[in-house]
Model the fold of this input.
Amino acid sequence: MRWLYYIRLFVQSFWSWKLLESLLGAFGVLWLLVEIFNFFELFGSLASWLKGAGAYFFFAGLIVAIIRTWPKLSARATVQGQDINLTIKIGDIFKGSDHIVIGTNTTFDTEVRNQLISRESIQGQFTERFYSDWKSLDKNVEEQLKGRPFEELTESREGKAKRYTVGETIKVYPEPNRAAYLVAIADMNTRGNASGTMEKLREALGRL
Done:
């Protein structure tokens, strides 16, 4: 469930150095105030109260730690020199009506099984969310790939034997008026394992 993910994310971020940092900061402020008041012999009663106010500073530090370590669920940035705003959000990309981008392999394999496309992957989840079976998606994919250049792979292998270039992109419609762009970002080896590089990812995003 989504809320369980948020709880786990909070726990992982909360029990970090920020917690210790905030608590030590609170006690540091307490110690500094007491020392200043004692040195200048100011506010004698207030200095005495501060000496016994450790619990208040502890809970204040705890509150600050919670605020500072609360997980951010979104971040926004502007691309320098361009009229483009980017927003990154934690959530379910399949909800809503926005168009989506799905990273896939250069052979455009679609069969959802352990040795090929994992059910846990974004592509696997996309297939099982919007299609009755992977063959329905595969039919759409093959229609979109018609006429596009490819390399014929002759070795015995898991999956398809036609390899397209990195960044090759096709558009399918999992729902009316909603497009999904499948972009090739990784190569599939003969055993059905995908692998890619940052260079290939940049190339694919540029072509997308």
